[in-house]
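Predict both folds.
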Amino acid sequence: CNILWLKFLKPIMARPLLKIHRYFRCKPVRFFSFILLYLTAGSLVFLHSGFSSDTSTTGASRSVRDPLISEGGGGTGGGSSTSDGLGLLGRVFKETRRAPRKFGPPWMKKNRAPDVPEWAGRGVDHHTSSWSHGAKGKTTKGMDDGRAKYIGCYVDDTQKRALRGVSFFDYKKMTVFRCQDNCAERGYLYAGLEFGAECYCGHKIQAPNVSESECNMECKGEKSNLCGGPKRLSIYRLELSQESTRRYGSSIFKGCFKRPDNVTLALPASAVIKNMSVDKCVDMCTEKEFSLAALAGEKCHCGFPTPLFTLHDHEDEELCLQRCAGEDFESCGNNDFFVVYQTQVQDNRCLDRRFLPSRSKHSVALASFPGAGNTWARHLIELATGYYSGSYYFDGSLYNKGFKGERDPWRSGRTICIKTHESGRKEIEAFDASILMIRNPYKALMAEFNRKYGGHIGFASQAHWRGKEWPEFVKNYAPWWASHTLDWLKYGKKVQVVHFEDLKRDLFSRLKGMIIFLGLEVSEDRLLCVEGQKDGNFKRSGLRKLEYDPYTAEMRATIDGLIRTVDTALRKRNLSGVPEEYRPR
């Protein structure tokens, strides 16, 4: 081997370098193998460092994430299905990352504080309520706080449940609040806690009560409260809010209604059923592919909501309290007053959507502060009109959910209205008219915070709520809630104000007014169809609502002042002002 170049090296380095030179000169493959191993090792080190930083930032949220929550029947301390065949449905909440948002408060676009996280995606809202935690220990008996009343301790049999609706398990953090909230969210009348960690829901109690001393197990998530015992349920009767959905198995209870004038035309399918029960009537209408099942004693009627049978005029439920022949605990109505349920059959009359047949030169904004119900309003408008809505931004998750106008340029003229959260004068004056959605800032801020850290239908973790993120968020974005409305009122050319709460309370008439504002003819059949599918795919469940008020006294003082400012501005334009529930108390 040629070693002339070694003469220029120090004697102490000559021998090792000579060996290396001979090794790789004789075996070139070994040299390339060495280089490959070196690069591989460096890549692994780089990937490991990146993974470690990711886990450190998300570890806090994972540590407080709820354990698996199961839905369906189950045995005490286990997850076996009930005789009703409800089974178990695991719910897993995942944190997702999204692209940075293209909008924000005007004063934060240029000089964003380094500790203020970037906005990501666009949100949808969910009304957050609170339930009482229940009374302490045995003093729960006879307790009534206007939201839930403690009924007593009852026997529960794994073969024949006392409450036969859905069930939930949390062997680490079960509380009275969590159980009540879960059952109320699904419209059940009763919530029962068993074995300190199990929650059962139902419309009626089908078991005898026992001594209070037998419900003696502390709740896993709050030692100060009792959550039943072995095969014993601590049962509460829930005072459901108007927005709650009362379910019976897979169907939804709609209420008691007076017999329509022309039953044959309003409800075209009917049959007399021996040993009538809710299940039998619902099954018959489902098989015939109707969305409504109306029980009238021994007769079952099926149909869809129409102007002949709108389901708008509810009657006192006592008028329908006639026991079913096939089930003593159920009401089957009578010849004059029908008990109505919504089946799982989808009403297809309002599902067709398309782009405008010709490009419009008149652009209408659907404007709102983030978290104020914009995506929900888009869902309603698209179903009611049959036309796609557009967006000032682009959100791939919304496009994948069916908002096909999301990908269209907002000036294309092919969509019925354009979603926007912008509030600058230039951006506002670019539109010829606007529907301005306003929501209670206390609810809007929480909804947007949940979307920011949990996705469109997810929830922020306890670490985010209790950390520095929440106070910083309120500080920077609460003023924007007010300035957004004030800017649109000031610079908007033609503005129709719609309050989120009013739209929820009176969807039919409020949505009808929005369609007329958009210059379209109203189809009452489509509007009635929308009422049955109003939630869409963007409603948060009640599984992870906060159990405490996140607003401090200082935050409330600031937000209350902003509410007064917006209320004054609305009244100066001869509008009705903010709804009653907004106002400081």
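Second protein follows, with its predicted structure tokens after the sequence.
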Amino acid sequence: MALLLEEIVKSVELWLKLIKKPDPFVDPNLDPVLLVPGVAGSILNAVNDDTGKEERVWVRIFGADSKLRTELWSFYDPTSGKSVCFDPKIKIRVPDERDGLYAIDTLDPDMIIGCDSIYYFHDMIVEMTKWGFQEGKTLFGFGYDFRQSNRLPETLDLLAAKLEAVYTASGGKKINVISHSMGGLLVKCFMGLRSKIFEKYVKNWIAIAAPFQGAPGYVTSTFVSGMSFVNGWRQNFFISKWSMHQLLIECPSLYELMGSPDFNWQHIPLLEVWREKHDKDGNSHNVLESYPLKESVEILTESLSTNKILHDGVDIPLPFNLDILKWANETREILKNAKLPPQVKFYNIYATGLETPHTVCYGDAENPVADLHKLRYTEPKYVYVDGDGTVPVESAMADGLDAVARVGVPGEHQRVLRDHRLFRSLKHWLKAGDPDPFYDPLNDYVILPTGFEIESHVEKGLEVAALKEEWEIISNDQNKPDELCNGKPMVSSITLSQIVGDCPSSRAEACATVVVHPQQDGKQHVELNALSVSVDA
């Protein structure tokens, strides 16, 4: 019997050796990478000061709503600019295991069956280890308390310490910072307020799906009625939309994601409300009231003026917080004035191709809103623009920095972090692995912006608009002959015509000309000139 057991043990040992995974490939020559997530993209643990007990409160699927209410609900302290938990015994800590990667990898490590909404940087971490990056040597993460302002000194101190630690751990190599979503605002605030530290440690910054000018439609509807991170039956096991609403009303980070009122929007985001009005004779009629970004604050303030929660037996008012709004407006000025150090290269990847809320409308012509206090119980309708479902392309592209490249990748706001086209661009910019012989910047949406102008005016009842945009396309092979242009500029044009309204004689016309210049020094210059003429409505 003992001999049989010995044979079994030997067989099992042999089997284990056969199935043992080979050691991962490690490239010691790579520059380090620091991954910075966006809102809701970090695991948060609640630590009880009395008992020392620590447990995960974000993200967790089971018991999530109860834990959020008791341990994560918070109020804003205007003296510090910080959101503080209602329970004074509770402190929020971001776990730092795996050199910060644990907190931003899979947000609920207890989930056996995968769920898209909890995978954050997981796929990117797996992909980058295939390229030769090594956790703790060349691959790191920075999780943070995403409730707080992107310029909170405490968070900036932690980021400064993380940059120094990464720099030291990698042997004094400068760092490639890769941010996603609101993480881009955090990095830009750090760049503006801690510029010398940023310049000392950072080599490249790659921002992915960053709401540089805000996410107006998404945030406006969140202020009014909250947000859900999961849909369908899974909402029964996760945080309710109402509970999330109460948390976010006191989060400075959400106010900093509001649409920028000073940005020159091509499509102005609005908050619209159908209201019932009465004339002097008492007759009622329904009208659509439209509020631009600054004016919409009045509606948000009135609609949330009676909002409150019951916490530990006490009613706590939670109106739209004008103190946080003031703080957020100051943050916006810091973001606007932040400058990129000359030796740091900046890359912008934005997601595109999805309907993205931009203007939010409550009520309709048949069912106007009678009471603004009940606005949060009304389902909104949206006017959409191009984007990733959360951030409009217009906002994500408007970084205000001298970008080496701005890349459009079709995809959704979070799932773009798992997109193969994004991976190919990252691998190329990080100089990881062998050069990809199939890398095609044009097909992978790599462009260099060089100019953009648009103007419009009304003349003799006609609205005339002119647009000029220029790009440079980088070729991977600078010595390849330019077969497309054959050494000469290639010119192409298109004309469109459309009937306006019901009148066949009323038309709108547009024409565009595209000029593709011959390739020089690995770059190809492309010009678009367009003109449209329509009857002024």
